[in-house]
Specification:
By secondary structure, this protein is mainly alpha-helical. Helices cover about 75% and strands about 0% of the residues.
Length: about 180
């Protein structure tokens, strides 16, 4: 029992969980784009849900509990439901989904290569800290809430009105006309 406590306090379990969540995030993110199981966009949306959930596991390891909860509630909940709603509303035909445009594929691969090279360049020039900074308020949301409702009240309200307008627009667009 003492050895298990030493492993947990030593960070071996945390390191293992980090690698598991990071691998799941990368794998599911890859399966969103290149899904060998099905050409249906709904399965890609489901892999996006798994990507978001594994990213929230990474936030939990960083003791950012609020961000992990928001990641699951807002993105995995609301945004994915909206994506699936739009996918079902569009009702793509099988022939339209199977066509691969080679120019778009080439441009996408080129842009991914450029972003990856910039990432590698930034990562190689970064100086990593040897110790993590001590945070007295680990995982608390008081400072975030205070900042959100004092300095950023107007942008918060503008975003909420925009989301309301988008929701009304989706309802009006999806409504079938009665004849």
């Amino acid at each position: 029992m003492e050895q298990i406590n030493n492993l947990i306090s030593g960070g071996a379990v945390t390191d293992l969980l980090f690698y598991v969540f990071a691998a799941l995030t990368l794998l599911c993110g890859l399966l969103v784009i290149a899904n060998p199981f099905s050409r249906n966009p709904v399965t890609s949306a489901m892999f996006l849900v798994l990507t978001i959930i594994s990213m929230s596991g990474l936030f939990l390891l960083l003791h950012a509990f609020f961000l992990a909860a928001v990641q699951i509630l807002v993105y995995a909940g609301a945004v994915i439901v909206l994506f699936i709603f739009v996918i079902m509303l569009l009702d793509l035909k099988e022939e339209q989904r199977r066509r691969i445009r080679f120019f778009g594929l080439f441009a996408g691969l080129l842009s991914v290569g450029i972003v990856f090279s910039i990432f590698i360049k930034c990562l190689s020039s970064a100086k990593l800290a040897t110790e993590a900074p001590a945070n007295a308020h680990d995982g608390e949301t008081y400072a975030l809430g205070k900042l959100l409702f004092t300095n950023y009240t107007l942008p918060f309200e503008i975003v909420s009105v925009l989301l309301l307008v988008a929701m009304i627009g989706v309802i009006l667009l999806s409504k079938k006309k009665l004849e």
